[in-house]
Write a structure and sequence with these properties.
The protein is mainly alpha-helical and 124 residues long. It is built from 6 helices and no strands.
Length: 124
């Protein structure tokens, strides 16, 4: 039971990372096209950095780092790090189901390979 609670650090890292990436994807999508000029790009990024949603995403990234540090006190990196790859699967699902992005057979195969890899490493 205690070891299961230790996994909460990994799951917190996953949650905060996926939240951050999803919010950034959403808000950047709403912000429009990236301007061509360097000055325009600077204002574009500044506008995003002042966006409250982006601030929560940056904060979530910070908390993800804290959760990862805590996970490193409980697990070997060779066990914990493969869990990071679940971010790919979760973001793929959000991309397809929330943001309407494409899904293909190759993406499906890649996702299954990631899952298999996490399972194999976790058992090792």
């Amino acid at each position: 039971m205690l070891r299961m609670l230790d996994h909460m650090y990994i799951f917190a890292m996953l949650f905060f990372t996926v939240y951050s990436q999803a919010i950034i994807r959403w808000q950047v999508g709403l912000a429009g096209a990236l301007p061509e000029t360097l000055e325009g790009k600077g204002f574009f990024v500044l506008k995003l950095l002042l966006n409250p949603w982006i601030v929560t995403a940056i904060t979530a990234t910070f908390f993800s780092g804290i959760a990862w540090m805590l996970a490193m006190t409980k697990f070997e990196v060779s066990y914990a790090y493969p869990w990071v790859s679940l971010n790919f699967i979760l973001m793929l699902a959000l991309g397809v189901f929330v943001f309407g992005e494409s899904f293909s057979v190759m993406k499906c195969i890649g996702t299954l390979l990631i899952i298999a890899g996490v399972v194999f490493i976790g058992k090792g």
